[in-house]
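#struct-help
A.M.: can someone run this one for me? Single chain, 190 residues.
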Amino acid sequence: MSGSAHTMMAEANDRHAHASGGNKLVSLAAAIIAVLAALGTLFSHHRSITALTAKNEAILTQARASDLFNRYESKRVRYHVYTAFIAAGLPPTQAGKDTLKDLADKEQASSLATFAEAERLEKSSQEYEDHSERVLSSYETLEVGTTFCEIAIVLVSISALASTRIFLSIGCGLATIGLAFLVYGYFQAH
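D.P.: on it. Structure tokens below:
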């Protein structure tokens, strides 16, 4: 009987040592995966804000470009009105014709500069738009990685409650996939 009790005690100690070691592994895995999920959330929120900022800059820059295109059009209209007056012979004196010619030349020169600036702003707006799209794509990838990590935390936690390694293995596998998405998403916008 003492041999049997000794054997039972040894087996109980072995099970306790195995369970304690397993709980430490599960706790460590859950903590590491939780940190990955937190980093994924941090980076995805940052990307979200960056994408919104770039989108807003694109909209503002496009509005400025539209204003300049409108200003260009009004300068072109004034230029054509001045040249039409000159062609129609409406200023009866040479001084009047010279004044209108000077005004037409100024409108011509300034309209070309306004048009060039409007085109530059429109190009800048498109660059902001493209940047916003890249960052938004990175945000979405980071969100997928974070979701994988969050699911992995749940599975690792279930493995602790169910005392089975299968959920731990699946959870660690999902965390690895999540980490791959997080790394890819982080470098996607750069």
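A.M.: thanks! Residues 2-88 form the longest helix (87 residues).
D.P.: also worth noting: The chain has a mean pLDDT of 90.
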